[in-house]
Amino acid sequence: IFLSLQQDVIAGFLYAILILVVFHPVVDLIDNFNLTYKYAPLIIITLGRAFDMAAVEKIEEQLAGLRIAKRSTLSEEPAYLLDIDVSKPAQSESSRSVAVSCSNKSIRVYNRDTLNFLREYSSHPGILNGVRFAHTCDSMVFSACSDGTVKCWDIRLATQKAVQIFSGYPSNVFISFDINCNDLIICAGTEKVEKDTFLVFWDARGITDCASTTKEPLGVYSESHNDDITKISFHPVEPSLIVSGSTDGLVNVFDINKDNEDDALISTCNSDSSVSFIGWSGKDYKQVYCMTHDEGFCWWDIAQLDTEEPITLLHVLDVRDTVCIENDSLHYLVGGLYHEKSDKLFLIGGTYTGSIHLISCATGGLSLVGTLSRGHSATVRSFCWNLTDESLLTGGEDAQLLLWKPGAVERSLTKKTSLKIASSVQRKVRVHSSSSKSRKK
């Protein structure tokens, strides 16, 4: 059977070549050569796979060919750049802004195209854990803080005052957060206090006409994690779906439209370690992946929950031991990006000296796509991918914000400098040793 299948595939491929050579439709060619319609599906499949492979190869070439287009100037008070987000304007690309959360408890806003500094919000009483622009209003940016609040800032205003504050419960220390795709719900994850850890939810509506008001939570989920909730990510297109990751090793997917937490919990996957990053991938974003603080990688297909097929697509205990990098090494993972055009998931990692490694993910394993060098001089902490112009923003412990574009030439003569400052943010690395795995259907 296998040999017969091989022969059919080869035959289909040869007929596909003939089609391309003579530029005739499949049916006409088959009629002219007195062939049966047996190979028509194989021809179509072969051509489709060839085009898919070509698209992926082109995307990988573009990623490997990223070069520095812009570099921000160093601030008078250098700080680690911990998180980056780009505004999503409804009308004009030219108005895009970049927001960066820093280790000195400030949010800095830059022009996305020039990386010119615009303004800074520095009135945070605690450590910042994330920054996000609203999806439907490009002037609104949110930040979560360890003081138990999520604040909303209007970057059109010069004031240091937040236009809205979402307050948690007295013991809450927020270390992760996100806002859903229609800007209706905000969710923040807490550190464990005594025996409690929470996903806290708020109604985000009315942020533009409720200046300086404080909103109380809608409610919490409190039973699904038993340790710090390190990452939260709403689904890119389904506003009711959210995934959370924790130092307890669990990655939970919820449908918050359900009446209670038990019903809302769609699936629980175990990474066997402390979760450092989570994201969505795949067609219609039906896959979930995570990275761990000990540089592991897990990838699951949530679409298989109601089938007998395994949901685990790939599980790598330590990516550093798996990816082969000639004359270099991989020291850590930063996060992942799903490339919609090529339906391909990539990981971003790096070295302590500032090199950035781009890694391709497949069910068969991981492979190096390319390395971006001569940019940062220290550990890279954050990034943001822009699918529109295939560009990448990166920020690191050298206090520099870089914009990478395919084939770009850096015009700035500013020399990068090595920055060694004490971090105000210490990652908690607690490996979850349990080998138990759970799965809810």
Automatic annotation (TrEMBL):
UniProt KW keywords: Membrane, Repeat, Transmembrane, Transmembrane helix, WD repeat
Pfam families: WD40 (PF00400)
Residue stretches spanning the membrane: 9-27
Repeat in keyword set: yes
InterPro entries, sorted: WD40/YVTN_repeat-like_dom_sf, WD40_repeat_dom_sf, WD40_rpt, WDR89
Membrane listed as a keyword: yes
WD repeats: 121-156, 222-264, 373-405
UniProt xrefs under PANTHER family: WD REPEAT-CONTAINING PROTEIN 89 (PTHR22889:SF0)
Name of the featured protein: WD repeat-containing protein 89
